[in-house]
Design brief:
The structure holds two protein chains of two kinds.
Chain A lengths: L1 H26 L3 E8 L2 E8 L9 E5 L5 E6 L5 E4 L7 E6 L5 E6 L1 H6 L8 H10 L14 H30 L4 H34 L1
Antiparallel strand pairs in A: 1-2, 2-5, 3-4, 3-6, 6-7
Chain B lengths: L1 H22 L3 E6 L3 E2 L6 E9 L6 E2 L6 E6 L2 E4 L5 E5 L2 E9 L4 E8 L3 E3 L4 E13 L14 E5 L6 E2 L3 E8 L2 E2 L4 E6 L16 E4 L5 E5 L4 E10 L4 E3 L2 E16 L5
Parallel strand pairs in B: 2-11, 11-21, 13-21
Antiparallel strand pairs in B: 1-3, 3-4, 3-8, 5-6, 5-9, 7-8, 9-11, 10-11, 12-14, 14-15, 14-18, 16-17, 16-19, 19-21, 20-21
The chains are: A alpha+beta, B mainly beta.
């Protein structure tokens, strides 16, 4: 009797908590990353529809072949700015928390019009792009083994190709509000709380058993 | 015979008088070519600025306005110099275009020069606004520009479906206008619709004691709201002080639901 009522209580609590969590994510609605080019620099702003900024969110930049050329994080204002590491078009992807994702494209023309792609150190940049590395390598580190670079490049390309349909699917599902991640997160909460409930109950039961043993 | 002709004449005169009084719902217009701008679509709008009767389409001359600009992120940006003259039905109107650089809501506003309307023996000044949203950031549409008189929307003024309710608050000198009278008109852009009788041209609603009004828009297209206040005899026509009608005009676009 006690066991069933405890189970029911824990389930109800779990449901309430999961509903609360879902509400929090669905309030935020759609997320957008907006990019513009000015004086050779790409400026991005990431925000939810109501004006809330996407802080500390990961931003990834891909070149026209789908290779990741840069990653960064948005600041307190939801902004992330960078010097374009290669020619356009650049795909800029925002991965905000709770499964919110958005992307935008800066076209080759936009980059050219914004007086982008400064001509300083073209060689270093070109190498960074080819390596598919996410951050700029300092000149000293350029001397890494070529085989490894090549391997990395091939791996990245293959992974991007294989993952593309999945990413697309995920992006589409995310735009409908609740993503697969959210559903799993919710289920996780439910199981977790159920677990705690059962655990607590077990402790009680064990205590009772001990009392009985005495 | 005589009696009937008198009756006909009387009827005609009545119709004429009624017709005249109904026909004069002036509206200052600012109509953008789109009111929701996306990164994927065209990043600029063309703006059509004219003084007209939106349903019937009669144009009036509009002088270069005292003020024209866009209110964005809490600041007015003057765009008066971008205006180029346009002639519509032989009458003076204005046009311009604007490219959106940053995300957010842009409130376009105009403070026209006073228009002398001899038929009503008064001046008309319609302070007019419309909102364009850019790049998915829905912030700023409910801000006050700070015009002499203005309508502040209480409903996000874009992404509105046919039949939806529009609500707003009428302000004059920054204060709500109790029981303000608001004229509402649909922009008969293609001139394909006619009114079954004169009262269907201009709808008349009144605000409540807090200056708040509401109106459900029954058709796709642009809807204009003109809240009228008496500005007092602040201007002179041929040396004689005349009444000034102050209008707070707001334009809203309404879209039909779209099938997949």
């Amino acid at each position: 009797m006690l066991r069933t009522s405890l189970l029911i209580t824990s389930i109800i609590i779990a449901i309430f908590i999961s509903i609360f969590c879902f509400c929090e994510t669905s309030f935020a609605h759609k997320v957008t990353i907006f990019a513009y080019v000015e004086a050779g620099k790409v400026y991005t702003e990431s925000y939810y529809v109501d004006g809330t900024k996407c802080k500390n969110s990961e931003v990834e930049v891909y070149n026209k072949d789908g290779q990741k050329v840069l990653t960064g994080k948005t600041d307190e204002k939801g902004e992330f700015n960078f010097v374009p590491p290669c020619e356009g078009p650049l795909k800029i992807v925002l991965n905000a928390s709770m499964g919110h994702r958005a992307e935008t494209v800066v076209s080759k023309q936009d980059l050219a019009e914004g007086n982008a792609a400064p001509k300083t150190q073209p060689e270093t940049r070109a190498k960074n792009v080819a390596s598919g590395r996410h951050t700029y390598t300092s000149p000293e580190k350029k001397e890494m083994s070529i085989t490894r670079h090549e391997l990395e490049k091939v791996l990245n390309e293959t992974l991007d190709k294989k993952l593309h349909p999945i990413m697309k699917l995920l992006a589409e599902s995310r735009q409908h509000g609740v993503s697969a991640k959210d559903v799993f997160a919710g289920l996780g909460y439910i199981f977790g709380i159920m677990g705690i409930g059962i655990y607590l109950k077990d402790i009680k039961k064990q205590g009772k058993n001990r009392e009985n043993d005495k | 015979m005589k009696k009937s002709s008198i009756a006909i004449a009387a009827t005609l005169i009545t119709i004429l008088v009624l017709g005249i009084s109904q026909a004069f719902a002036h509206f200052q217009m600012i109509i953008p070519s789109q009111n929701i701008v996306t990164q994927e679509g065209k990043r600029s709008v063309k703006l059509d600025i004219r003084f007209t009767h939106p349903f019937e389409g009669h144009m009036m001359n509009m002088e270069k306005p005292d003020e024209f600009g866009v209110f964005f992120r809490g600041k007015k940006h003057d765009l008066r110099n971008t205006l180029t003259p346009a002639k519509i039905d032989g009458k003076q109107a204005w046009k311009t275009s604007y490219t959106f650089k940053r995300p957010g809501d842009y409130i376009f506003y105009v403070s026209p020069k006073a228009y002398w309307e001899p038929a009503e023996d008064k001046f008309i000044i319609h302070y007019t606004k419309t909102v364009v949203d850019a790049y998915g950031l829905e912030e700023g549409w409910d801000e006050e520009v700070g015009l002499k008189t203005e309508i502040i929307p209480l409903v996000r003024p874009y992404g509105i479906y046919t039949g939806q309710l529009f609500r707003g608050i009428v302000k004059l000198d920054g204060k709500p206008v109790p029981y303000a009278e608001i004229e509402v008109e649909w922009y008969n852009a293609a001139n394909k619709y006619k009114a079954p009788s004169p009262p269907y041209v201009t709808h008349v609603i009144k605000a409540d004691k807090n200056g708040v009004f509401s109106f459900a828009m029954p058709k796709e297209g642009w809807w204009g709201f003109a809240a009228l206040s008496d500005g007092g005899k602040i201007l002179k026509y041929k040396g004689e002080p005349k009444d000034v009608e102050l209008g707070a005009v707001f334009w809203v676009y309404v879209h039909d639901m779209v099938q997949k």
